[in-house]
């Protein structure tokens, strides 16, 4: 990276987990709260499935229509079932 930009410093694993990821989570949470508060109706969808190796997964999504008439979908969680 020093060839591209000599002032660039690759962030450490510790700074990513203690600084960048919490800030990103706060930013995404703020955007989701704004999306929820700026719509009159929203729906939550739960979807479950298995892959070819019979591992089970589920996802929860939120769908809403904003004031401009655009359909928005947000993935709230995606997890494996054990």
How would you describe this protein?
- The longest helix is centred in the N-terminal third of the chain and has 25 residues.
- With 82 residues, this protein is α+β, with helices and mostly antiparallel strands.
- It is flat.
- Helices cover 30% and strands 37% of the residues.
- Strands 1-2-3 form a three-stranded antiparallel β-sheet, covered by helices on one side.
- It has a single domain, classed as Roll (Nuclear Transport Factor 2, Chain: A), CATH 3.10.450.
- The chain has one helix and three strands.
- A hairpin with a 5-residue loop joins strand 2 and strand 3.
Major β-sheet profile: 3 strands, antiparallel
- The percentage helix is 25-40%
Instruction: Name the helix and strand elements from N-terminus to C-terminus, one letter apiece.
Output: HEEE
What's the CATH first level?
A: Alpha Beta
Q: Taking strands numbered 1, 2, ... along the chain, how are they ordered across the largest sheet?
A: 1-2-3
> In the residues, how many domains can be counted?
1
Query: In CATH terms, what is the architecture?
Result: Roll
> How many DSSP-defined strands?
3
Organism: Rotaria magnacalcarata
Protein name: Transposase
